């Protein structure tokens, strides 16, 4: 089925990473997407990697639905985070 | 300068209301502290609580005065927030939790106990879903979950409730010396009501001895209360063994699992727990909500503390706060999903922190049992350094020397005293909390600052100098003044 094609999964993955980078909170950003090259392990990446070899159609569909839901959550929470943003953390100036 | 703007505003404000006075105090403090180079950062600035012109004025001057690096180029101190490394005190809310809560703060505002209309029904449905989520995290039946305002209320309810209900037959309670203050204080107040309480000692690792516990059990013991994970030193008590021991003697076991649920696997049936306290804000949920698990079979009965409308099966009257409970439920579901992942990461980060500090500085002691230990709570004692000074020096990192409840006092922690830590080492302890949102960068920054400040403070310390010269500090006779 087209909705679970490789292209769809990859595009979902990229959108989630892109949207998560917009979190104004340093720690939330970190939970979902890592900025550091040395420790390239963070939630979205890990979840996609972990489920890379899932073959069952039903499972894939469940995972994709969950990812879509999470993407919506991320987008909403990014907006809210920006409404009440604070100063940056002491280590954020190191971040590129 | 921003400072001048604030002061002139203050001078023009006559007979100021409370916030202005607060600002006045703050303004003077700031002015005094930095010799006229006062700068207001937004943290700790009461401007946020002010209404009207003063706030506008502050914002205005804010915009006009670029604060970053205006004088000494040290913009770090000006308007950046410290790192958060105190997750035992409270955790930030997970964005997924807030997302679940928001609808119930906006449109679904019905009273979950209203039975006559749809507003009530939808709230009730959400509340029951949350109850299932909490129950599923700890392997309980949803009917065994009673929502409360947090772990303190849960502890009070469980301990006082059970003790009072069974008072006519049994009036002995057992707890440990390293419990949270609310458990100890509940026991103290029961003592005043005529109950007998045994405070079990712990060994130098913070663990209780099962034999001592067994010997302390009496025919009139109604309740044993032992916390699952200690909030200060992260020690995990052998709850499963205690549970089996208690259930064999038909004594109820209560455990304060505020620091354990959602972080380590907990199953109330396998561990033979009869009552358990859980808190929302320790597992990335909202503050002001928690739960007590009360076993149904065999039934544990408790006397309610609050009288009222009989909500939560009469055990906890008062309207259940739907948004908080929904957030709590979501936090539990996420915790269940993420437990393994979080635990793996937190262990890695904790090892990183401990190894780096231990390799760089000598005479650092880790408090608590190294094996029966929750990795996210690292309590270190830096010998010859005063803990409070170190906390002050590490102002870029939000840390604590122990429980938030007692962090205002300079007394050393009673938990560290109970495990037999020397007075001086107890004074030099710091608790590092690592949680779901902690990053490698944060750990590295904390470690770097910590090493730097410990070295600096030790260089200033006459005690450290004496130790370097080979003087045994214990042999010194201090003169009394």
UniProtKB/TrEMBL annotation, chain A:
Please name the GO terms of the biological process aspect recorded for this protein, alphabetically: iron-sulfur cluster assembly
Q: List, for all copies, the residue spans of the domain called Complex 1 LYR protein.
A: 8-72
Gene Ontology CC annotations of this record? L-cysteine desulfurase complex; mitochondrion
CDD domains given for it? Answer: Complex1_LYR_LYRM4
One Pfam family cited in the UniProt record for this chain = Complex1_LYR
Q: Which InterPro entries match?
A: Complex1_LYR_dom, Complex1_LYR_LYRM4, ISC_assembly_LYR
**Could you say which protein family the record assigns here?**
Belongs to the complex I LYR family.
Protein name as it appears in the record: LYR motif-containing protein 4 isoform X1
User: Which organism encodes this protein?
Assistant: Geotrypetes seraphini
The gene designation is: LYRM4
UniProtKB/TrEMBL annotation, chain B:
EC number in record: 2.8.1.7
Enzymatic class: transferase
Q: Where is the Aminotransferase class V domain?
A: 84-445
Cofactor dependence is on:
pyridoxal 5'-phosphate
| Quaternary structure and partners | Homodimer. Component of the mitochondrial core iron-sulfur cluster (ISC) complex composed of NFS1, LYRM4, NDUFAB1, ISCU, FXN, and FDX2; this complex is a heterohexamer containing two copies of each monomer. Component of cyteine desulfurase complex composed of NFS1, LYRM4 and NDUFAB1; this complex contributes to the activation of cysteine desulfurase activity and NFS1 stabilization. Interacts (homodimer form) with ISCU (D-state); each monomer interacts with the C-terminal regions of each NFS1 monomer. Interacts with HSPA9. Interacts (via homodimer form) with FDX2.
Tell me its family. Answer: Belongs to the class-V pyridoxal-phosphate-dependent aminotransferase family. NifS/IscS subfamily.
Gene Ontology molecular function? cysteine desulfurase activity; iron-sulfur cluster binding; metal ion binding; pyridoxal phosphate binding
PROSITE patterns tied to this protein: AA_TRANSFER_CLASS_5 (PS00595)
Q: Which InterPro entries match?
A: Aminotrans_V_dom, Aminotrans_V_PyrdxlP_BS, Cys_deSase_IscS, PyrdxlP-dep_Trfase, PyrdxlP-dep_Trfase_major, PyrdxlP-dep_Trfase_small
The protein in question is named Cysteine desulfurase
Output the GO biological process annotations, alphabetical, semicolon-separated: [2Fe-2S] cluster assembly; [4Fe-4S] cluster assembly; Mo-molybdopterin cofactor biosynthetic process
Which key words tag this protein in UniProt? Iron, Iron-sulfur, Metal-binding, Molybdenum cofactor biosynthesis, Pyridoxal phosphate, Transferase
**Iron-sulfur: is it a keyword of this entry?**
yes
């Amino acid at each position: 089925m087209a909705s679970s094609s490789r292209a769809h999964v990859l595009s979902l993955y990229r959108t989630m990473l892109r949207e998560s980078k917009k979190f104004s909170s340093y720690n939330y950003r970190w939970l979902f997407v890592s900025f550091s090259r040395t420790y390239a392990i963070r939630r979205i990446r890990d979840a996609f990697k972990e489920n890379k070899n899932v073959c069952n159609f039903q499972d894939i569909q469940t995972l994709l639905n969950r990812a879509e839901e999470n993407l919506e959550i991320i987008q909403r929470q990014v907006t809210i985070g920006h409404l009440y943003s604070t100063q940056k953390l002491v280590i954020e100036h190191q971040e590129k | 300068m921003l400072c001048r703007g604030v002061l002139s505003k203050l001078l023009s404000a006559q007979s100021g209301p409370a916030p202005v006075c607060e600002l006045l105090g703050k303004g003077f403090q700031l002015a005094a502290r930095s010799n006229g180079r006062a700068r207001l950062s937004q943290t700790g600035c009461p401007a946020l609580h002010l209404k009207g012109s003063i706030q506008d004025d502050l914002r205005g001057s804010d915009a006009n005065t670029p604060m970053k690096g205006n004088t000494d180029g040290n913009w770090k101190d000006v308007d950046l927030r410290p790192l958060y490394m105190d997750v035992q005190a409270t955790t930030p809310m997970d964005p997924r939790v807030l997302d679940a809560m928001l609808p119930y703060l906006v449109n679904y505002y019905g009273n979950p106990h209203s039975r006559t209309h749809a507003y009530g029904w939808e709230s009730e449905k959400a509340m029951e879903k949350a109850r299932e989520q909490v129950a599923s995290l700890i392997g309980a039946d949803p009917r065994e979950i009673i929502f409360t305002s947090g772990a303190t209320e849960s502890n009070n309810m469980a301990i006082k409730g059970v003790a009072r209900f069974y008072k006519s037959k049994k009036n002995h309670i057992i707890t440990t010396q390293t419990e949270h203050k609310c458990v100890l204080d509940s026991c103290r107040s029961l003592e005043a009501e005529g109950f007998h309480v045994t405070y079990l000692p712990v060994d130098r690792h913070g663990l209780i001895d099962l034999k001592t516990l067994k010997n302390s059990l009496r025919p009139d013991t109604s309740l044993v209360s032992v916390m699952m994970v200690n909030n200060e030193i992260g020690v995990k008590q052998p709850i499963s063994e205690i549970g089996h021991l208690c259930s064999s003697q038909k004594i109820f076991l209560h455990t304060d699992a505020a620091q354990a649920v959602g972080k380590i696997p907990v199953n109330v049936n396998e561990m033979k727990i009869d009552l358990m306290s859980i808190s929302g804000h320790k597992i990335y949920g909202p503050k002001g909500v928690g739960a007590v698990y009360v076993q149904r079979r065999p039934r544990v009965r408790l006397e309610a503390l609050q009288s009222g409308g009989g909500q939560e099966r009469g055990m906890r009257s008062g309207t259940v706060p739907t948004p908080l409970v929904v957030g709590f439920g979501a936090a539990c579901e996420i915790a269940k999903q993420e437990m393994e992942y979080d635990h793996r990461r937190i262990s890695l980060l904790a090892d990183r922190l401990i190894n780096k500090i231990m390799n760089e500085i000598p005479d650092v002691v880790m408090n608590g049992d190294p094996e029966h230990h929750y990795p996210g709570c690292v309590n270190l004692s830096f010998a010859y350094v005063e803990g409070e000074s170190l906390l002050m020096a590490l102002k870029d990192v939000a840390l604590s020397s122990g429980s938030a409840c007692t962090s205002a006092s300079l007394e050393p922690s009673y938990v560290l005293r109970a495990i037999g830590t020397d007075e001086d080492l107890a004074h030099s302890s710091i608790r590092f909390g690592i949680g779901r949102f902690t990053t490698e960068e944060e750990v590295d920054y904390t470690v770097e600052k910590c090493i730097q400040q410990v070295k600096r403070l030790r260089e200033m310390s006459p005690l450290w100098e004496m130790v370097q010269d080979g003087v045994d500090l214990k042999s010194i006779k201090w003169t009394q003044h």
